[in-house]
Amino acid sequence: xxxxxxxxxxxxxxxxxxxxxxxxxxxxxxxxxxxxxxxxxxxxxxxxxxxxxxxxxxxxxxxxxxxxx
Length: 69
Description:
Blueprint: E1 8-11, E2 31-36, E3 47-52, E4 56-61, E5 65-67
């Protein structure tokens, strides 16, 4: 799946990527909007910028995100 700017997402799982920090565990279950997608598809090393409700904007690994309908 390719993420597009403006898509609504959920942080649904912890990433196995080394960029995942312990504080990000608190983001699991939160919803947000893709602000700056990466063009690499399904590459956990390719971070996407996400604005999370009540938590600000963060760069998160793609394998931790899923698109909401």
